[in-house]
């Protein structure tokens, strides 16, 4: 387990995905960061290019990277407005869970992982389920799972 140096600023990491719950996790993390003089970090993981031809694979990889960067810039503006600081941005390629665990190992300054759970009948979502279950022992930071159904007013009231 990596040891963490004493840090002066909490960093709240949010995983960017296409789910509607992302807005809840991001707002919660931003409000907590602002309340504790912390900072937000965001991770966007793109799928690996899956093509037999190198040129096509590289084109697919570049398109996904551009989409990720555009989405991250949009979310970064929201995070900055809510938290008061520009967030730290990470874009990686691979499986979300694997890249998330690698990032947490590589960046000892990250203090808290914030996810929002899907409240639908299928359960909280694969990442929440995996990290709160089988992979909990691989986390070196607290995991905060926020109900994805929280309203803006409810988030603001508890942060």
Number of strands: 5
Structural class: alpha/beta
Tell me the major beta sheet: 5 strands, parallel
Q: What is the H/E string?
A: EHEHEHEHEH
> How much strand content do the residues show?
15-25%
The CATH C-level name is Alpha Beta
Strand order of the largest sheet: 3-2-1-4-5
CATH-level-2 architecture: 3-Layer(aba) Sandwich
Question: How far do the termini sit from each other?
Answer: 30 Å
CATH topology: Rossmann fold
Oligomer: single chain
Cα-atom Rg, whole angstroms?
16 Å
- Overall number of domains: 1
Into which percent range does the helicity of residues fall?
40-55%
* Total helical segments: 5
Describe the structure.
It is built from 5 helices and 5 strands. The protein is of the alpha/beta class and 159 residues long. The chain has a single domain (11-158), classed as HUPs (Rossmann fold, 3-Layer(aba) Sandwich), CATH 3.40.50. A 5-stranded parallel β-sheet has the order 3-2-1-4-5, sandwiched between helices. β2 (39-46), α2 and β3 form a beta-alpha-beta unit. The longest helix is centred in the middle third of the chain and has 30 residues, at 54-83. The protein is globular, with a radius of gyration of 16 Å. The model has no long low-confidence stretch (mean pLDDT 92).
């Amino acid at each position: 387990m990596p040891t963490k140096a004493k840090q002066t600023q909490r960093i709240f990491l949010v995983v960017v995905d296409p789910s509607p719950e992302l807005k809840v996790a991001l707002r919660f993390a931003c409000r907590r960061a602002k309340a504790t003089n912390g900072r937000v970090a965001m991770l966007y993981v793109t799928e690996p290019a899956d093509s037999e031809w190198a040129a096509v694979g590289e084109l697919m990889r570049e398109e996904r990277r551009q989409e990720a960067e555009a989405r991250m810039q949009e979310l970064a503006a929201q995070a900055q407005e809510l938290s008061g600081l520009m967030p730290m941005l990470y874009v990686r390629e691979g499986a979300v869970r694997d890249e998330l665990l690698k990032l947490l190992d590589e960046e000892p300054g990250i203090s808290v992982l914030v996810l929002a759970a899907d409240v639908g009948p299928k359960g909280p979502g694969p990442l929440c389920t995996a990290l709160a279950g089988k992979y909990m022992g691989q986390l070196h930071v607290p995991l905060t799972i926020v109900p994805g159904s929280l309203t803006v007013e409810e988030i603001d009231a508890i942060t």
